[in-house]
Design goal:
6-stranded parallel beta sheet; elongated
């Protein structure tokens, strides 16, 4: 027999009317009470009648997530998948569905259809969709940007990983290990992407005056990274350490170092963004900037539901990365 709203109230230790108010978000409820109700709903596998709820509340019972499928570097990877999964978890806890729609060049049309068609109660947007035209169309409709937008769009609510800090952490670590010439290796071909620019800024800011910056451009394929690294390491005065902007760049670099007869970490040090599942099993294990995209997704969704429940002030959140030090960057 399926659980009822009274069962949820009994388990949460509240009145049924309080459960109803939490579900329909009709009044201010303390965070502690709301979490108790959501926890009880999850334990009892209780699902509100979405049709009845929408008729009573005037809400659609869904949030929209607009993706730019052409932005491979930002969204076509496992780390974005963990962010999306976290968003779905938060939506489910609130009794909501997650509706995913393609934006890209159609971002304005997609947002118009979702908002004016009353298909969703809030929107999660990528920075690439946060154009002046789209934001004007959204107005004060609940929305959060998943990622840090360009400076002229920063006066919105957004959540991102602190890419500047991550690059600075990796660069400072390599310098502390005694490496003297640290290069940045990765996707300058995607220089229009804000997160790449911020990583470069963090890398450059961490360099001392006597260590001039050097950027090596490659695409997202290990073979291309291998060829670029092979040519660089053939130079007489090549860098002795590298901050890689993803694991694929690091994979190609490791192979090039081996083929050039260079030892890691004795001859060159390597640290890379994104703590891939196999990073610790490489030879040597790879030092990684771990970016918590699941936390980024959770905070994005939580801020969106706060906006749906009531008007909230604009917030900008940077999720702190952490450096996982492994053998690829540690000199004895």
């Amino acid at each position: 027999m399926s659980a009822t709203i009274r069962d949820v109230a009994r388990l949460a230790g509240v009145n049924p009317s309080t459960v109803s108010r939490v579900i329909n978000e009709k009044s201010v409820i303390t965070a502690e009470t709301r979490e108790r109700v959501y926890s009880a709903m999850a334990q009892l596998d209780y699902h509100p009648n979405s049709l009845a709820r929408s008729l009573v509340s005037g809400l659609a019972g869904a949030i929209g997530m607009v993706l730019d499928t052409g932005d491979d570097g930002a969204f076509n990877n496992a780390f974005f998948g963990s962010s999306q999964y976290a968003i779905e978890q938060v939506a489910q806890a609130h009794g909501y569905h997650l509706l995913i729609a393609n934006g890209g060049e159609r971002a304005l049309e997609t947002v118009t259809e979702l908002v004016l068609g009353k298909k969703v109660d809030g929107l999660i947007l990528p920075p690439s969709a946060a154009t002046p035209q789209v934001m004007a169309r959204i107005g004060d409709f609940p929305h959060v940007i998943l990622g840090q937008p360009d400076e002229d769009m920063c006066l919105n609510t957004w959540v991102d990983v602190d890419n500047r800090s991550g690059a600075a952490l990796a660069t400072a670590h390599l310098l502390e290990q005694g490496y003297r010439s640290v290069a940045y290796f990765g996707g300058m071909h995607t220089g229009g992407m804000g997160f790449i620019r911020r990583r470069l800024q963090g890398y450059q800011a961490a360099l001392p005056a006597d260590c001039p910056p050097r950027m090596l451009s490659t695409d997202a394929a290990p073979d291309s990274a291998y060829r670029t690294a092979l040519a660089c390491l053939a130079e007489a005065e090549h860098p002795d350490a590298f901050v890689c902007d993803d694991n694929f760049a690091a994979f190609g670099l490791l192979r090039a170092a081996r083929d050039r007869g260079l030892r890691v970490p004795q001859d060159i040090g390597i640290a890379a963004f994104n703590n891939a599942p196999l990073a610790e099993y490489l030879d040597p294990p790879l030092t990684a900037v771990d970016i918590d995209t699941a936390m980024q997704g959770r905070q994005t969704a939580q801020l969106l539901f706060e906006q749906i429940a009531q008007k909230t002030p604009l917030r900008q959140v940077l999720v702190a990365p952490r450096l996982i030090v492994r053998a690829s960057s540690v000199r004895e």
